Amino acid sequence: MVIKKDNNQSRKRGIKASRQKLDAAMLAVGLKTQTALAKKIAEQEGLATPPKDMVNRAFRQLPVEPISLERIAEALCVPAYQLYLTSEDTEAPVIKTTPQPVDSKQSSTDKVHDDIIENKKRWQSPAFIFVFLLAILITSYQFFFPPTNTENSNKVRPPASIEIVKLGIINSDDTINEAITNRLSQQLSPTVKLVKHWPKSVMQLDQLDWSKSVEADYVITWKITNLERFSHLTVYLLDQHQRIMLYNDALLTVSLNKQLGLLTNRIAQTFTTFIQTGSVLSIDGLTLQNEAVEQFMLAMQYLNQENTLANLSRAEARLQRAIRIDANFARAQGALCTTLLRKASLSSDVKMIGETEDTCTQALKIAPVEESLQGMANFTRAKGKLEDSMAYYQDILAMNPGYTDALYGQFKVVQKQAAQQKQPALYSDAINIIDNAIAQEPESWRAYFLKSHLLYRIGKPIEAITTLQKSVEKDENFNNLNNLGTMHFCQGDMEQAKQAFLKVNKLERDPSWIIEHQLASLFQFLGETNKAVEYAERGMALLTTEKVDGHFDPWITKALAYQADGNKQVAHESFAKALQIAERLRIAGKAPGNTEVQLVYIKVADAYIDEQSIEQPTKQQLLNELNEVASKATIPNALVRLMLAYVMLGEFEPARPIYKQIVGMCPGFVKDPILAPLAS
């Protein structure tokens, strides 16, 4: 498999799909119409309306966005590249006027039976009868005379003694292939007779002729394909009759050089086992199923992209597919653990974190590979067991020093320890860890992103913004642009914040209500109330009641936008909805302290709409409630709203300490006109 990352030009032009390949994939998953396919996409993605236009455009072989074809491919359970229109396909829409010839490799009575159901009149066609008889003939021939050129079949018996085996190791002479060749030669030379010199012209021949050409019993060769951060290594054993997969793995590209000793040792052991027993067994936790590895790599591509629910859902679907192909594929099982943990974190669902335990534990039971250890490290970190988490990360780095994701995990653990133990010196340790990750994988956007967050937290906003801009240079995405806009907003640089937020809307990505509502807040601060309302409504349009149920913030943003624009009725209605959702979250025990502060703030803000002042006895009742929960505010958002609630109640003294704290953290947040009395 050759996996290609879309370049900028392909994004602009779009990608064309093959109608023939789409039809074949639909048939394979039991979908009969384009409408059925669109409905399946809608079900998988939780859409209110099936994307019929997108599907129709693809079937008409018109250019579509890469992400559109990826969505179609997910519904059809195939890699997207298998649907691409190539030079072998016709670009004209395929109209079946006569029966298609039967492929001898794929023909079956099931396929013929499907054609019978679709059009019974075909039975009356002489051409169809001829093709049908030909299919039976070919199938019968294959049954009695199976092909010898098969992957992982053991038709040829290995020699009785490994010492007499003549082996060639053949591949191109670039740096990584030469390193693999040298290591394999060193490890196998004491065991077999190596063919040490072979003409470069051998590689122009069919692979099954290689062993004959170099006068060897077997030839070992391999291919390496790349997809973003990961490399897929597939190793084959060839003779004149068959190609056998010896080894199949996917690992971080930056760790490949550091893992060559381990990899070539595994390959040598597998080869020796085959010669001695005639069979090939996968290494614990890995798989010999090529499609499972391909699905794993595609999933890891999504995990490396911006952390959105859509990307995580796509990663989850790929990993589930890989596990269905091979239930003992520990890399996929461990990555699924991490994916589910990220989804739980994104939705602030504590219960869901606990529900991932079985998945994480199962991965480690299969085998302690990097991803299964990483999954358990992430799980224990999410549960607050920081020492256990750190031990897992250390185990990964002892196994694979180039596994950068373990450094990211260590960085997060040390950050938590610094905060919990109130030891600011530990932040320096965290910075050292993330700098190590940057040195190891300098082209990764994520390391700069993580470092910038910590720098801002410890009061270095200029360094934080500079570091975050490096992340944006590596890969513009929702996460780093959104944070960049937030940091500029925090610093009071509203124009730069606006530019960063608007850039997000220009990205080819899934639309987000979050960015729309941040723009609404920004325009409200700038006094452009009509735009504040526009972006608030744009954000709400991206939400259904079900999706917004866990978030009261969108309703608060909408209420404030309409209040600023003079529409009190909609403001009251929006605050009422926010209050309803916050109350449900409080009862469910989600972020209890901060949620209780938000609840009182919503009540105060709603009461403040009409008269811009709150009279007794309502004022005293709300003040009592606010005083009762004030100490429970621990996150900046809740602190800001606690301060705003005190000011709206006319209680400036308890608001002043919070104001000073926020000015030190995020001076942009105190530019709200309501807070003007505190500025003195």
Short description:
This protein is mainly alpha-helical and 680 residues long. It has helices spanning 8-13, 19-29, 34-45, 52-59, 66-76, 109-118, 126-144, 175-188, 210-213, 260-277, 290-304, 309-325, 330-346, 350-355, 357-366, 370-382, 386-399, 404-421, 425-440, 445-457, 461-474, 478-491, 494-506, 513-525, 529-541, 545-548, 553-564, 568-588, 592-611, 618-629, 636-648, 655-665; strands at 166-169, 193-195, 218-227, 230-238, 243-252.
Structure description:
The structure is a single chain. With 680 residues, the chain is mainly alpha-helical. The chain has helices spanning 8-13, 19-29, 34-45, 52-59, 66-76, 109-118, 126-144, 175-188, 210-213, 260-277, 290-304, 309-325, 330-346, 350-355, 357-366, 370-382, 386-399, 404-421, 425-440, 445-457, 461-474, 478-491, 494-506, 513-525, 529-541, 545-548, 553-564, 568-588, 592-611, 618-629, 636-648, 655-665, and strands at 166-169, 193-195, 218-227, 230-238, 243-252. The chain contains 32 helices and 5 strands. It has a 5-stranded mixed beta sheet with strand order 2-1-3-4-5, with helices on both faces. A hairpin with a 4-residue loop joins β4 and β5. Residues 1-13 and 91-150 have low confidence and may be disordered.
